[in-house]
Amino acid sequence: MSQKDANKVVTVVAYMCQGDKSKEISYTDAKVIGNGSFGVVYQARLLETDEVVAVKKVLQDRRFKNRELQIMRQLDHPNIVQLKYFFHFVGDRKDDVYLNLVLEFIPETVYRVARRYARQKETIPLLFVKLYMYQLFRSLAYIHHKGICHRDIKPQNLLLNPATAVLKLCDFGSAKVLVRGEPNVSYICSRYYRAPELIFGAVDYTCQIDVWSAGCVLAELLLGQPIFPGESGVDQLVEIIKVLGTPSREQIHEMNPDYREFKFPQIKPHLWSKVFRPRVPSEAIQMVSQLLDYTPSKRLEPLDACLHCFFDELRQEETRLPNDRPLPPLFNLTPYGECLHFLLIITVISVSYILL
């Protein structure tokens, strides 16, 4: 994109995220900040509000509705990137139609922050690890309650505001509403964060694949490097087995009942305490072990993860950011799923206490 193109004012008729209302919006100062097989992401400035936004441009297949757009229009959560508008335009070839998602702009990612610490041979301070992971689990609890599986949880898709430590989940290009019994593709999710049931070829998996990915992210932030750095799909399983040991027949059946090849060398599981540095607290290690379980149903649910003792520091009133700012809002529960689930847990705890 030339400087002349970047300074050009573009005016389009865009639709609001909610409802069917449309309005003219104008933006300028567009510059490419990301690209890939999905399309291109631009940073731009809305003239009406002077607000900086991200514009994700993807080629639209005329035969289908765009799944990412359909899902994004359902979402409203403080830890999920906000869709502001969307619009279409025809490309240079008349048959090419592009969908443009106008999203709030968040300047940083967990991936880039972690890389900077790694280059200095340091790990991210534990308070930030807790903040990032807690907010990730909040976002997962919200989308999973709606039946939506993200299917590409990784540090690159976790946006950060460095000043406030607010984290927002982004890139719903692989997301899907999972319906039990309906098949899904197993070749999904970035390799380092791919759940073992996907490697075993499961097509009837659950939202717990996101929980595995979140466990990989947590382990990576604690280690300063990916915990399972596989060089291929098969090697990814080898890396997992090195730590978790060889899965049992029962575990393989839980991951994929149709899998029939059981020829694996018998490797004993590594002690989790030996995987991490001595200074990593035991509650962090315990949490990783509860997320990275071969059996999907045994992995922590996202809201149960929020209640884990690893996050107790975030619940203390005196806890503040290193810049002396208050912590971002962490307990402003959304009406969908979070309040209901917490009430259910409190009820269960209360009943258990009475029975004791």
From TrEMBL:
Q: Which GO terms describe its molecular function?
A: ATP binding; protein serine/threonine kinase activity
Q: Name one GO cellular component term.
A: axon
**Could you tell me which InterPro entries the record lists for this protein?**
GSK-3, Kinase-like_dom_sf, Prot_kinase_dom, Protein_kinase_ATP_BS, Ser/Thr_kinase_AS, STKc_GSK3
Question: Which Pfam families does the record cross-reference, listed alphabetically?
Answer: Pkinase (PF00069)
Matching entries from SMART domains are given as: S_TKc
Q: A GO biological process this protein is involved in?
A: positive regulation of proteasomal ubiquitin-dependent protein catabolic process
Q: Where is the chain membrane-spanning?
A: 333-355
Entry keyword annotation includes Transcription: no
Residue positions annotated to bind ATP are: K57
The family note in this entry says:
Belongs to the protein kinase superfamily. CMGC Ser/Thr protein kinase family. GSK-3 subfamily.
Name this protein carries in UniProt? Glycogen synthase kinase-3 alpha
What is the organism field in this record? Schistosoma japonicum
Organism ancestry: Eukaryota, Metazoa, Spiralia, Lophotrochozoa, Platyhelminthes
